[in-house]
Design brief:
136 residues; alpha+beta; Nuclear Transport Factor 2, Chain: A; 3 helices; 6 strands
């Protein structure tokens, strides 16, 4: 891997860590600080089509059902697509207040799409789906 790719990978890892820390702090602004303005987030039953919409929804969630929560994240892969994009695949889940592990039924497979804009790696899209199909 070239130094440039190693630096790009380190930048992506830093963006993810910052996002996870902001989630744990209940900081919706911090969580989306490294999202593109036109970012998309798709989760079961939900489609959010901009950084502002994602932030607004997360702020409401951090005041309600996600208050005191954090995330579990196990990165499975990171691959570069062209010069300015990368895809991260992870197994993730929400640790609700008081939980120490995510039940299998709460785990999701997640895809993060990164785009390098003006020398900065930003999250352009996020999507997740349950690891287990309903009823498994």
């Amino acid at each position: 891997m070239s130094d440039s790719r190693a630096e790009d990978e380190a930048a992506i890892q830093s963006v993810l860590v910052d996002s996870y820390k902001a989630w744990e702090a209940g900081d919706a602004f911090g969580m989306v600080a490294n999202y593109t303005a036109d970012a998309s987030a798709i989760m079961t039953g939900s489609r959010r089509d901009s950084r502002d919409v994602i932030r607004e929804n997360m702020a409401l969630a951090f005041e309600g059902p996600l208050k005191g929560s954090s995330t579990y994240n196990n990165q499975l892969s990171l691959r570069f697509v062209g010069r300015d994009a990368a895809i991260v695949v992870s197994e993730s889940g929400i640790l609700f207040a008081g939980e120490t592990e995510v039940p299998d039924t709460g785990k999701v497979n997640a895809i993060w799409v990164f785009e390098k804009r003006d020398g900065q790696s930003l999250i352009a899209a996020y999507h997740n789906s349950p690891v287990l199909a309903p009823g498994q």
